[in-house]
């Protein structure tokens, strides 16, 4: 039965790049394999040429982000996960812990702290998908762990004003879907981790770890009671392994990925730096917001615009027809919709996270051109109405 005779006509124009995945994310505009032609493949990462390129990523990242001069920055194995795990295993245990989680990855860090490291005194501040933890209830006499942007929920902290300057504990921030896209007060953060594969659109498996002087002091003054695997080890006999922060990585990096990261950082500098990345991401959220405000079938999973992510833009279907189905049926309807978009080569990989409520998730980082975001939205209207009307 036809439910709605006013089916939008099929759009004509398509995004020039259909990659709207939230990780790994779209490459920078204009990217092609020639960008990797100068990579030092087949060379030792310990050679001076390779080490200089690895260290160049550190130097350019600090410069673009305007990280404080006193902060150290290093490249870690295993993406953002490896960088964050290294911080947790190396720094925790001296103080009690407050940990915030409002989506899947934040909940993973809760499991690490409670079940793996078995920290005795832990305050967990949990919130459901679409909401955020109570930031005013955090005890900063403790070490505090949080994600700046909840990639699987589309919810981010509004700013760093809730973090005091005179805190006693360390603030450990998983910033992987926020950094290079959101304004961040790094002086409020003692540990900052991210990966190349998010806002920069880089390749997987490499993470970044920034440490404040307070975090470095903790590393050199305190040793956890548990053994630390080599892949996470930042000190040797309580002395910082400085080479990690000068281009001597813990394990072997891919020089192809290194070349790709350098290419993207050079692109960032060429378009105006970090401010331009933030502007592009904000524009993508603004484009989606205008569309949502006019829609009769979709809304943001996060109802609070002050904590709404501009990168992992997460949407749920509010239409009564759709919500008459059970959750499993809803997920199947969304899969049908996304199959249409994939067959049209309009949008790939925009299903919501599998542990989140049934949803769509559009990446809005700076490698997504604003015009492509505009071109995508009519296709969402069209494909949804096709499944709704079974045509």
Keywords, please?
alpha/beta; Aspartate Aminotransferase, domain 2; Aspartate Aminotransferase, domain 1; 2 domains; seven-stranded mixed β-sheet; three-stranded antiparallel β-sheet; 9 helices; globular
Brief characterization of the structure:
By secondary structure, the protein is an alpha/beta fold.
Describe the structure.
The protein is of the alpha/beta class. It has 2 domains: 34-270, Aspartate Aminotransferase, domain 2; 273-389, Aspartate Aminotransferase, domain 1 (Alpha-Beta Complex), CATH 3.90.1150. The protein is 34% helix and 15% strand. Strands 1-9-8-7-4-2-3 form a 7-stranded mixed β-sheet, with helices on both faces. Helix 1 (48-65) packs parallel to helix 5 and helix 8 crosses helix 9 (370-389). The radius of gyration is 22 Å and the shape is globular.
């Amino acid at each position: 039965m036809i439910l709605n005779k006013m089916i939008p006509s099929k759009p004509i124009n398509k995004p020039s790049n259909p990659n709207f995945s939230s990780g790994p994310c779209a490459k920078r505009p204009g990217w092609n394999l020639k960008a990797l032609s100068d990579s030092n493949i087949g060379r030792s990462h310990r050679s001076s040429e390779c080490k200089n390129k690895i260290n160049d990523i550190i130097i350019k990242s600090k410069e673009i982000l305007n990280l404080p001069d006193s902060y150290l920055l290093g490249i870690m194995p295993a993406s953002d996960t490896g960088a964050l795990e290294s911080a947790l295993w190396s720094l925790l245990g001296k103080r009690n812990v407050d940990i915030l989680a409002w989506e899947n990855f934040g909940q993973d860090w809760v499991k690490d702290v409670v079940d793996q490291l078995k920290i005795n005194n832990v305050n967990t501040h949990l919130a459901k998908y679409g909401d955020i933890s109570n930031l005013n209830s955090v005890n900063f006499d403790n070490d505090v762990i949080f994600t700046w942007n909840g990639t699987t929920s589309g919810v981010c902290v509004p700013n760093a004003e809730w973090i005091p300057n005179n805190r006693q504990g360390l603030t450990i921030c998983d910033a992987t879907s926020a950094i290079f896209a959101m304004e961040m007060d790094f002086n409020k953060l003692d540990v900052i981790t991210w990966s190349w594969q998010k806002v920069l659109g880089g390749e997987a498996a490499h993470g970044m770890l920034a440490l404040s002087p307070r975090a470095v002091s903790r590393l050199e003054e305190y040793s956890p009671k548990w053994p630390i695997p080599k892949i996470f080890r930042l000190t040797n006999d309580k002395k910082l392994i400085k080479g990690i922060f000068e281009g001597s990585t813990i394990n072997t990096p891919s020089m192809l990925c290194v070349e790709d990261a350098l290419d993207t950082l050079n692109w960032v500098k060429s378009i105006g730096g970090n401010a331009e990345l933030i502007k592009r991401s904000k524009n993508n959220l603004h484009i989606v917001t205008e569309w949502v405000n006019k829609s009769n079938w979709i809304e943001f999973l996060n109802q609070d615009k002050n904590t709404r992510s501009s990168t992992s833009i997460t949407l749920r279907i509010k239409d009564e027809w759709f919500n008459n189905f059970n959750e499993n049926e809803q997920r199947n309807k969304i899969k049908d919709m996304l199959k249409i978009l994939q067959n049209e080569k309009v949008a790939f990989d925009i299903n919501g996270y599998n542990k989140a409520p049934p949803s769509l998730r559009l990446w809005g980082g700076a490698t997504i051109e604003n015009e492509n975001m505009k071109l995508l939205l009519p296709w969402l209207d069209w494909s949804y109405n096709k499944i709704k009307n079974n045509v």
